[in-house]
Design goal:
five-stranded mixed β-sheet; 5 strands
Length: about 250
């Protein structure tokens, strides 16, 4: 089986908003945590107020994804010329200002917090650039897509209900002949053992693995999934060397 060929020839359909409904992992996790809260969000349409964590996370995602796209598709020189600091700063502040406008000009973060989050983001980027080779290998890896779509009915009895998702980074390891799906997460101090044992958190990529396999006709045993967690804060005097890392 030619995995690359199968993926490249796959055409993910568009949603027919007149006849179909979509669900997402965000909806599923909200339901699992609190059905009442889910009803407020998706039935009563009560919007979640914007917050600085969302602006930060989105800007960090976009910056890391842009760097990876340049590195794999344009070459290391283009990636090195990319001003990741500027991209992140402008993206973060732009997203924050956009959210402020949506709530009538009311600020939901202080200037001190904006400076702190900006500096945290720059520290993450510096660490990522220094240690990128430890996590993403150039030789033998191909970048298949960024925000690769999944749109598929998860239950055969309800073909008009589609699971909709976007995968942060999808790569192919030519040496091992495996697809690797990465999900980028931003965190204040990283995941604890309790986070790792939280099935609501860890089931996301397991679910995407299953439906990616179906959507793109790839054997599920040829797919790996990984969380790439970047941390805003690290301990001042960490007990172990690994605790100094901003990548988990």
């Amino acid at each position: 089986m030619n995995i690359i060929e199968n993926i490249n020839k796959t055409v993910v359909p568009e949603m027919d908003w007149d006849t179909e409904k979509n669900i997402s992992y965000t909806q599923l996790s909200a339901w699992m945590e609190c059905p009442h809260r889910w009803a407020e969000m998706y039935i009563d349409k009560i919007k979640t107020p914007p917050n600085i964590y969302f602006s930060f996370g989105t800007a960090m995602h976009e910056t890391l994804q842009e760097y990876m796209e340049l590195m794999y598709n344009k070459g290391q020189q283009h990636a090195d010329e990319f001003d990741a600091h500027k991209h992140f700063q402008e993206g973060f502040i732009g997203l924050y200002k956009g959210d402020v406008e949506k709530v009538g000009g009311v600020h939901f973060a202080t200037q001190k917090e904006l400076i702190e989050f900006t500096n945290d983001g720059l520290e993450i980027i510096d660490f990522f650039l220094r240690h990128r080779q430890e996590h993403f290998h150039k030789h033998g890896w191909k970048l298949l897509g960024i925000e690769m779509p999944v749109l598929i009915p998860p239950h055969e009895d309800y073909p008009n209900v589609k699971l909709m998702g976007k995968l942060d980074l999808v790569m192919f390891d030519e040496t091992l002949h495996r697809v690797v799906i990465w999900d980028i997460k931003t965190s204040t101090r990283g995941w604890t053992k309790y986070d790792k044992e939280n099935k609501i958190k860890t089931s996301q990529m397991v679910m995407y693995k299953k439906y990616f396999a179906e959507q793109y006709d790839v054997p599920v045993e040829n797919i790996d999934v990984r969380y790439f967690i970047v941390k805003r804060k690290i301990a001042a005097n960490p007990r172990y060397q690994i605790m100094k890392s901003r990548i988990q």
